[in-house]
Write a structure and sequence with these properties.
Layout: H1 3-9, H2 12-21, E1 26-27, H3 28-33, H4 39-51, E2 55-60, E3 63-68, H5 70-84, E4 87-90, E5 93-96
Length: about 100
C-alpha cells in the first residue's frame, strides 16, 4: 500500500486539484486559474500528487499536462472498500455479516 497516496489526500488544495482533473486533463496554468495561490505552490502540490501516482504528466510543447491516474485511484477505491467490508471468520474462512 502506498502511504504517499493518503498523505497526498490530506491537503484540501490537492483534493481540489484531483476534483478538477477527474473531468479533463489540464495544464499547470489552467489549474492555477482555479485557485487563489501562486503557481509555484500549485506545482509543489502537483509534485506531491505525482509522487503518490495520483496524477501523471505529459509534456506537450512548452506545457506540462496533468491527468488523473485512474488505475491508482481505482486501486485505492478497491482497497478502501475491502478495508471497510464487514466479514467474520468461521473456521478460518471469512463469512459476510448480516
Amino acid at each position: 500500500m502506498n502511504d504517499d497516496f493518503f498523505r497526498a489526500l490530506s491537503n484540501p488544495y490537492r483534493r481540489e486539484i484531483i476534483k478538477l482533473l477527474k473531468w479533463k486533463s489540464m495544464s499547470v496554468g489552467e489549474i492555477v486559474e482555479k485557485f487563489d495561490i501562486a503557481q509555484p505552490t500549485i506545482s509543489r502540490h502537483l509534485d506531491v500528487l505525482k509522487k503518490a501516482e495520483i496524477v501523471t504528466s505529459e509534456r506537450r510543447g512548452n506545457q506540462i499536462i496533468y491527468s488523473l491516474n485512474l488505475s491508482t485511484v481505482q486501486e485505492m477505491m478497491l482497497f478502501m472498500s475491502a478495508l471497510f467490508e464487514r466479514k467474520d471468520m468461521k473456521g478460518g474462512v471469512p463469512i459476510e455479516c448480516e
